[in-house]
Design brief:
mainly alpha; three-stranded antiparallel beta sheet
């Protein structure tokens, strides 16, 4: 028997002096205390396919599907004793880690899914869950097959292997997906408060539309353009300051400062004695909005488990577009000579209500652990957020946070000097040929996102619809409602279609819509056709050029590059947004019916870029992810991959596990002595 096998088998053996007795990990074997196991290693030959049963993924019926698949002809049949079953991994350096299969899967998700709540991430989250479930289930099946061959002399036949593989895959996937359907009260409050920030941002995108004729009548086009564009002047500044505040004051502190900025900006606008003061208030709100675009995805991404980040990102996106719609609806009541100040004051009122909820706002556990890995406050918050009952569960979650933070950092701790050296992630991205095209594509799409002209509609739809329909506010509100519905349609399409495909359909659809708008405004079609073209223009934006430029960053870049890529994308987007907000009134005044012509040119160029250069960025498939897992973990040995027994027992005692590790280290010394005595004889 090899040294490795004897150490893990639990065999009791005396040396020549009768002083050394073997025990170690045998008592933790899922096959019983007297069973030898040397563990299994992943390889391309043994782990090569995703079970077909996972293709029909249905979160609600997962457990029922698993129970319906018999194992060796009997439902729920278990192999050996599982009461003390414990999965563990032996790394290539000899160190060992104790984690259940579902904990291993969550650790993989934490490392691969960025700490960002981003709409559309659900596909990546699910693909990772499927890949690991298949990966771990095949390790479980391999180990069971080895046990059957060793004890009965017969291997599992192909049908038995397929049954076990399917059942174990579904059971593990069910456990991994629990995070996506389970939320706690503290997390609900965090989502509510963060969503209110995005709602306020959306509200202020469109709030300048309806009251334009009544806010200090007689203002010039340039003065009003500056009032609108001041929002975009503050945006980039807020995005930069938010990152610094989040690191220095914590995510919670930065969110509270942002809330106070919304209150201040709203009051300055509502009480402004002149349009110049409105511009100042608008710039302050722009700072708050820019900060929100940075803080909200980071904060929710650091609070939520990986399988919830896409869903929460979608919720905040809906809050944004609903805010735009509410601003249009409020205009029917308050867009008049006496009510426009109340429209601006609503920004402060909503932010003040949000401030009342801040006692329920928790600090980010990732930020706390980054400052002090032994933080008791971080552990307390994790326990509340996840609803844990056992300290062992909390410590495992802490390890997930710390491991993911390390893997998503650009600081190289494995350099030749043995120290740590901070690297420039932006420089690294442009030096890496594989990443460079993605970076360029992201920047091009951010420019297209704004120069497509979408915010010209939301900033100046009243100006655009003037003369097209009797009441321009009706058209503006209709666009806001369509924007909300299109956001939902985009969510469905992003789960089924490739990112490049959606960009091409989006840019092509918006290009055609622009042509129809121009033709209609020149009298060749009715005004209602122009209105319909604007509606289709908004819809096509929401299915592609709206969400995809942001999603590419969160979905396709390595974790260590996400923050840098998101930062430069945000700055470029706000800069382009400023130019659209500032210059569209002049474009509309100069070109008249042809004002959407420049946007059509940008959209045509975007389509051509996507067709020729843009790589398909739909995301890595589960099969590809599984192959990466096999390659990454090829040097590891897995023991007791007991998927069937992992969920039916309380977490193992940490003290018990530590005692077993200590016993193993002691016995290694004794084993070396025993082998030396044997070789001398």
């Amino acid at each position: 028997m090899s040294e490795h096998t004897s150490l893990l088998s639990g065999e009791k053996k005396d040396d020549d002096n009768g002083s050394l007795r073997r025990r170690s990990f045998g008592s933790f074997s899922r096959f019983g205390p007297d069973v030898e196991t040397s563990g299994v290693k992943p390889s391309g030959d043994s782990i090569s396919n995703i079970p077909l049963v996972l293709e029909g993924w249905n979160r609600k019926s997962m457990s029922a599907q698993a129970d319906a698949i018999p194992l060796n002809g009997k439902k729920g049949q278990s192999t050996g004793q599982r009461a003390r079953a414990r999965s563990f991994v032996q790394n290539i350096d000899g160190t060992m880690v104790s984690m259940t299969p579902v904990e291993m899967g969550r650790h993989e998700l934490y490392e691969e899914v960025p700490f960002l709540a981003m709409s559309g991430l659900q596909r990546k989250e699910h693909s990772l869950s499927v890949a690991f479930s298949s990966y771990a289930a095949q390790l479980d099946t391999l180990e069971t097959d080895e046990y059957m061959a060793a004890t009965t002399g017969k291997h599992l036949n192909p049908e038995e292997k397929e049954r076990r593989l399917s059942q174990m895959s579904l059971l593990l996937l069910d456990e991994l997906e629990v995070d996506a359907i389970t939320v706690t009260t503290p997390l609900i409050f965090a989502v509510l408060i963060a969503s209110m920030l995005m709602f306020n941002m959306g509200y202020n995108i469109s709030v300048m539309n309806a009251p334009e004729p009544f806010v200090f009548p007689g203002h010039s086009t340039s003065a009003w353009s500056m009032a609108v564009a001041a929002f975009c002047v503050g945006g980039p500044l807020g995005a930069v300051l938010a990152g610094q505040l989040a690191d220095q004051r914590g995510r919670r502190g930065a969110l509270m400062i942002t809330t106070w900025l919304f209150i201040l900006g709203g009051l300055v606008q509502a009480l402004a004695p002149s349009l110049n003061i409105v511009i100042v208030g608008r710039a302050i709100i722009g700072v708050a909005s820019g900060a929100s675009t940075v803080l909200v995805p980071i904060y929710l991404g650091e609070l939520a488990p990986p399988n919830l980040r896409g869903v929460l990102g979608t919720m905040t996106q809906f809050a944004l577009v609903i805010g735009i719609l509410v601003a249009d609806l409020v205009g029917f009541v308050l867009a008049n000579p006496t009510g426009w100040r109340y429209m601006f004051f609503l920004t402060s009122a909503m932010a003040f209500f949000q401030l009342l909820l801040t006692p329920f706002l928790l600090e980010s556990p990732r930020w706390l652990l980054g400052r002090n890995a032994n933080s008791n406050k971080a552990r307390f918050i994790i326990k509340k957020l996840r609803g844990f009952r056992y300290d062992e569960e909390v410590e495992t979650e802490v390890e997930h946070y710390l491991g993911a933070s390390k893997s998503q950092s650009c600081n190289d701790s494995n350099d030749n000097s043995g120290g740590s050296s901070a690297k420039n992630p932006m420089l690294e991205m442009f030096q890496d040929k594989k990443v460079r095209l993605l970076v360029i594509s992201t920047l091009v799409l951010q420019v297209a996102n704004q120069f497509s002209g979408i915010n010209a509609v939301f900033y100046y739809s009243g100006l655009f619809f003037d003369g097209v329909i009797e009441n321009p506010l009706v058209g503006t509100t209709l666009m806001g409602a369509i924007n909300v519905l299109a956001t939902y349609v985009a969510l469905l399409l992003m789960d089924k279609c490739g990112r490049r495909t959606l960009i091409m359909w989006s840019s092509a659809g918006m290009f055609v819509s622009c042509i129809v708008i121009v033709v209609s405004l020149n009298g060749y079609f009715s005004d209602m056709v122009a209105l319909g073209a604007v509606a289709s223009y908004v819809c096509f934006f929401e299915i592609g050029l709206g969400p995809i430029p942001w999603l590419i960053v969160a979905e396709m870049f390595e974790g260590k590059y996400v923050t840098a890529a998101m930062s430069i994308s945000c700055q470029l987007n706000w800069a382009c947004n400023f130019f659209v907000g500032l210059f569209f009134p002049y474009i509309n005044k100069s070109l008249g019916a042809y004002s959407f012509g420049p946007f059509a040119i940008v959209l045509l160029l975007t389509f051509m870029f996507a067709w020729i250069y843009l790589p398909e960025t739909q995301g890595t498939t589960p099969a590809e992810l599984q192959a990466e897992m096999v390659k990454k973990n090829a040097g590891r040995s897995y023991h007791n991959m007991d998927i069937e027994g992992m969920a039916s027992h309380a977490p193992p005692s940490q003290d018990e596990w530590e005692q077993a590790l200590a016993a193993l280290e002691d016995e290694k010394v004794g084993l070396n002595i025993s082998q030396s005595l044997s070789s001398n004889k």
